Every structure is written in C-alpha cells, then in structure tokens.
C-alpha cells in the first residue's frame, strides 16, 4: 500500500512537471513573447496597477539634497496573449501560475523623473509571475535615489516634504497608469516603514498628475520630520553656551590683561565651528537658516566685544595712571618745624576745617578703578539681557 502511494505521488509530479514544461514551451512559441508585444499590440494604453511601498530612509544628504529610499515596487497588468486554459477539462488543468523570465516578456519601463543617479530607469528584476487569466505580476525592491528641494530655514527643527515622481512607459509608447484600488493607505504605508535614527515618517500621499494630454505620472509625497536630539546636543547647545561665554568677559578683571585674548579664542573657535556647519548645508539656499544666524550673531558679538574691551583696557590704563598721580600730589609736604608746632585749643573746642577739607568729607572722591568696575557690571548685565533676548527669539522661531 505504501509503495502504491509513493508511486502515485511520483506519477503526479511527473505529470505536473510535464504540464509545466509544455505550457512554458507553448507560451514561448507565441508571437506575444517572441516579439515582446505589449497588450493591445501597442496601439492602446496599458493599464498598470502600481504599488510603491517605502521601506526605510537609508540616507538623506542635506548638502546635495538627495534622498536614498529602499522601496518595494509591485507592478501588475493584464496581457490577453499570455492567458491559457486552466479549467479541469483543459490541457493545463489546475496549473494557474507560471514564472517566466522578464527578458522574455514585455515589461513596462519605470522611470524616476527626479532621480539623482545617472540611470533613471529601474531594473525590473529577472522573473515575472504569470497567471492563467493573463495577469502579469512583477515585484522588485529597488533603491531609489531622488532629489528633494529642502527648506533648511528652521534646521534642525525642520519638516521636509519630498516628492518621488514615477513615470511608467514602454518602448512602444504605451503609457502605464495606476488604479486607485491598488494604492495602499497612508496608515499601512507608515506602519510598514522601518525605524530610522534621524528621520520620522509622518505621512505618505500618492496621486496621479497629468503631464500632457493623455500622459500622466505618479507622485509619492513623503512628509519627514527630523529627530532633533543629536543636533540640539552637537549644534544648538555649543552655540548658546558660546554666546553666553562672550558676556563673561566683563567679569574678568581688567588688570589681568586676558580679556582680548579670551574673546579672540572664542571668535576663532566660532569661525571653525561655522565652517563645519556650512559643510552640512546646501550651497544654494533661498533663505539663511536660523541656526546660521545664531552662529553669525555670536561671532558678531565676539567681534564687537573685542573692540569694546580694547577701549575699556585703554580707559582702565589711563585711570590707573591718573590715580597714581593723584596719590602722589595729595600726600602732605610739611617741614619738620611746622609739624612739631602745636596749637593750644580749648578742651571741648571744635577744630575748624577749611572749605577744601569740608568738601572732601562731604563727597569722597571715587577712584577710576571703582568707576571701571561699575561700568563692567553694567555692561555685563546689559549684554546678558540682550544676548538672552536674541537667543530666545531665534530658538522660539526655530521650534514653531
């Protein structure tokens, strides 16, 4: 009994293999495959169902404005010349599916109109699945590189909308177009989207736009939001701290002589940091990013404080010389005999003071050093307030 079952199974496999081989040879003998003729003989447009599923964001080059997007692309159309009889009474009973080489069939060509690579025509793989009713299914997973015009004004708190423009055609001029029921919903597309360390996919929209009379193309719009944690730590925080470090120059004592060198070191470090940030930005920008304005404002603040502190250093030096001169000229120069002379005053009498001594007691003289200290304190407070208003305004605009 077991031997009979094994023999029957082997016989069925041989029959199925034979039917599969015969069907393959029969289809290859048709003019449809020999001439790779499209449906309708190339005289009518071919309706092609399209499903494009973004899988993940591989890379987004901000400087070149190029998006690298791994996708899953599915094309399906009906070719009556590839149908066969799969009914129980037919020669190919229960044989509903067959795989053929794409090189043997007519395959619509898919072009990325805004592609960033030299070859904008996608490779449609090596095999195609053919059904008994003439339907043909091709599924590939291409890496699509396309350009995206990015708005970097509020970088790194930006949200970008990148459009992938797909055009389906053939060497015969037959145009492919999608059907509404074959497009996946935005929720399912987002659900199939893999995680990315830099970007979050917020929405996907697909629509068909007409380019010329009877000629249309597909546009897939991806709404991407940048994750800001890395950029806040590596860009925003250093710039803000540097801007507040500029105001600390008024806390450094003028006598130390380190104020100008302190500001110059901050200015040079800012210049190096600006050159690093510009490498991450596109060269042609319609508007200046706010993060660059924050950097340039910090550099301008350092440059202004260098001139201001240079003036204050010169002023402090003059005050020091003036104080020394006043101390020397105000010291008493009295002869020995005059110093030993004593005047007998009544016990409870009040010593008379001349007008100059009285004036000195009423309004004691303020030294130049004290004036400089007061001015430094005022400048520190003013610069701290102005810098805080500037930083808060820029950051609030970026995060709106």
From TrEMBL:
CDD domains named among the record's database cross-references: LGIC_ECD_cation, LGIC_TM_cation
Task: Describe the location of the Neurotransmitter-gated ion-channel ligand-binding domain by residue ranges.
Answer: 37-228
Q: Which UniProt keywords apply?
A: Ion channel, Ion transport, Membrane, Signal, Transmembrane, Transmembrane helix, Transport
Name the PROSITE patterns for this protein.
NEUROTR_ION_CHANNEL
In its UniProt entry, what is this protein called? Uncharacterized protein
Which organism encodes this protein? Answer: Littorina saxatilis
The answer to whether UniProt assigns keyword Transport to this entry is yes
Which Pfam families does the UniProt record give?
Neur_chan_LBD, Neur_chan_memb
Q: How does it sit in the membrane?
A: Multi-pass membrane protein
Q: Where in the cell is it found?
A: Membrane
Q: Which residues form the signal peptide?
A: 1-16
Q: Name one GO molecular function term.
A: transmembrane signaling receptor activity
Where are the membrane-spanning stretches? 230-253, 290-312, 377-399
**Looking at the record's lineage, which domain of life comes first?**
Eukaryota
The keyword Metal-binding is assigned to this record: no
Q: Locate the Neurotransmitter-gated ion-channel transmembrane domain: which residues? A: 236-312
Any one Gene Ontology cellular component term annotated for this protein: membrane
Q: What family is this?
A: Belongs to the ligand-gated ion channel (TC 1.A.9) family.
């Amino acid at each position: 009994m077991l031997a009979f079952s094994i023999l029957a199974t082997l016989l069925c496999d041989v029959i199925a293999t034979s039917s599969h081989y015969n069907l393959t040879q029969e289809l290859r003998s048709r003019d449809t495959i020999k001439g790779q003729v499209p449906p309708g003989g190339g005289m009518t447009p071919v309706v092609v169902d399209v499903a494009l599923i973004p899988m993940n964001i591989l890379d987004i080059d901000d400087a070149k404005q190029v998006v690298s997007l791994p996708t899953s692309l599915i094309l399906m159309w009906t070719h009556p010349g590839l149908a066969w009889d799969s009914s129980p009474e037919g020669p190919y009973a229960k044989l509903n599916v067959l795989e053929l080489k794409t090189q043997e069939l007519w395959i619509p060509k898919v072009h990325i109109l805004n592609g960033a690579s030299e070859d904008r025509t996608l490779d449609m793989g090596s095999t195609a699945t053919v059904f008994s009713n003439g339907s043909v299914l091709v599924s590939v997973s291409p890496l699509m590189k396309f350009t995206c015009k990015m708005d970097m004004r509020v970088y790194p708190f930006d949200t970008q909308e990148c459009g992938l423009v797909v055009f389906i055609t053939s060497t015969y001029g037959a145009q492919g177009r999608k059907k509404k029921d074959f497009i996946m919903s935005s929720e399912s597309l987002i659900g199939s989207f893999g995680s990315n360390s830099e970007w979050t996919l917020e929405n996907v929209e697909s629509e068909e736009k007409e380019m010329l009379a009877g000629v249309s193309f597909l546009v897939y719009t991806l709404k991407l939001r940048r994750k800001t944690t890395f950029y806040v730590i590596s860009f925003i925080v250093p710039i803000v701290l540097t801007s507040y470090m500029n105001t600390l120059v008024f806390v450094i004592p003028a006598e130390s002589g380190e104020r100008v060198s302190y500001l110059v070191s901050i200015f040079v470090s800012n210049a190096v940091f600006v050159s690093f940030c510009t490498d991450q930005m596109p060269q042609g920008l319609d508007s200046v990013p706010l993060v660059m304005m924050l950097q340039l404002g910090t550099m301008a603040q350092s440059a202004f404080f260098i001139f201001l502190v240079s003036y204050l250093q010169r002023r402090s030096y003059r005050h020091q010389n003036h104080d020394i001169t006043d101390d020397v000229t105000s010291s008493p120069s009295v002869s020995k005999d005059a110093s030993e002379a004593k005047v007998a005053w009544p016990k409870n009498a009040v010593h008379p003071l001349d007008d100059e001594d009285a004036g000195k007691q009423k309004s004691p003289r303020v030294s130049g050093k004290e004036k400089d200290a007061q001015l430094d304190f005022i400048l520190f407070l003013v610069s701290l307030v102005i810098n805080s208003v500037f930083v808060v305004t820029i950051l609030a605009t970026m995060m709106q």
